[in-house]
Design a protein that fits this description.
By secondary structure, the protein is of the alpha/beta class. The protein has helices at 18-26, 59-67, 86-94, 105-114, 128-138, 143-156, 172-185; strands at 7-11, 33-35, 39-40, 55-56, 71-77, 80-85, 98-102, 119-124, 165-168. The radius of gyration is 16 Å and the shape is globular. The structure holds guanosine-5'-monophosphate.
Length: 186
């Protein structure tokens, strides 16, 4: 699709700190970034707000959106489904905004297959231990689910070379400024 804005994908293993880096990027109005809020069947964590962090939907509502072709991409992640609502992304790109998706690796591959011009950025954790402690620290889920997230993270760590850019999240402000430079260069 020929659009005025650019599509950016911020991805990387669960627990790497995508959300923190994204919030930092969103503070910079000169990037003209619109953050695409995803839809998920996962339950909200304490403090998460519907319509801001995610659109929290039932499995039936998710199915309905899939059936209607409303999702640009979607993926199953540790027992829940996550997807990117399509209409808003297209509208924002056409109006000249840059759109930021914050999604996992399989969804990224789906977007890149449909929109090869999308600019993919993979956030690298400083170490697996750092990843594990983040996953444990923020989770309200049972140990079994944490183990599934860790297993998933090991797989996701093998996918970095499929991305156009790789940025180490050794420090949030440093990583965000490296990504801001990528966005400006586009
Ligand atoms: P969490 O449950 O930790 O919020 O998210 C689990 C994983 O799903 C994270 O890696 C997150 O970036 C990813 N994710 C969030 N929204 C989407 C989406 O719309 N599509 C895809 N493919 N992944 C998503």
């Amino acid at each position: 699709m020929a659009t005025k804005g650019h599509l950016f994908i911020l991805s990387g293993p669960s627990g790497v700190g995508k959300g923190t880096v994204r919030k930092e990027l969103m503070k910079d109005p000169s990037l003209r970034l619109y953050y695409s809020v995803s839809m998920t069947t996962r339950s909200p964590r304490p403090g998460e707000v519907d319509g801001k962090d995610y659109y929290f939907v039932s499995p039936a509502q998710f199915d309905e959106n899939l059936k209607r072709g409303n999702l640009l991409e979607w993926a199953e992640f540790v027992g829940n489904r996550y997807g990117t609502p399509k209409d808003k992304v297209e509208e924002m790109l056409e109006s000249g905004k840059n759109v930021l998706l914050e999604i996992e690796v399989n969804g990224t591959m789906e977007v890149l297959a449909k929109c090869p011009e999308a600019i993919s950025i993979y956030l690298i954790p400083p170490s697996f231990e750092a990843l594990e402690s983040r996953i444990r620290g923020r989770s309200t889920e049972p140990e079994e689910v944490i183990q599934q997230r860790l297993a998933k993270a090991r797989y996701e760590l093998t996918m970095g070379d499929r991305y156009r850019y790789r940025v180490e999240n050794d420090d949030v402000l440093r990583a965000a400024s490296e990504i801001a430079a990528i966005i400006k260069a586009a």
